[in-house]
Amino acid sequence: MSSETIFSYFTKDAAAKRELQKKRHAYIKERQKARERLNKEKRTLDKLLKEKSIDNHTYARYKKLLEMSYQMKREQTRGKYGFTRSLAPTGLWAMAI
Length: 97
Hints:
By secondary structure, the chain is mainly alpha-helical. It has three helices and no strands. It has helices at residues 3-50, 56-80, 91-96. The radius of gyration is 22 Å and the shape is elongated. The protein starts with a helix and ends with a helix.
C-alpha cells in the first residue's frame, strides 16, 4: 500500500465520520423540536381540560392522537436521516426463535 492510498483511506474515513456526525446532530435537533412541540400541545390539552373546554374522554383521545402522531413523525425522521432500526430479532426474542 502506498502512502497516498493510506492517506486517501483516512481522509475518506474522516469525511464519512464528519458526515455521520452532521446527520446525528441534525437528527437530534429535529427530535428536540418535535418533542418541544409535543409538550406544548400536551400543555394546551391540559389547559383545555382544566378550563373544562373538553371532557376526559376527548382529552384522552386527543392525547393518544398526539402521541401516535409524534411516533409516526419520529419514524419518518429516523428514515430521513438513515437511522432505521434493524428488523432482525434481538435479545430474548431472538433466543426464543
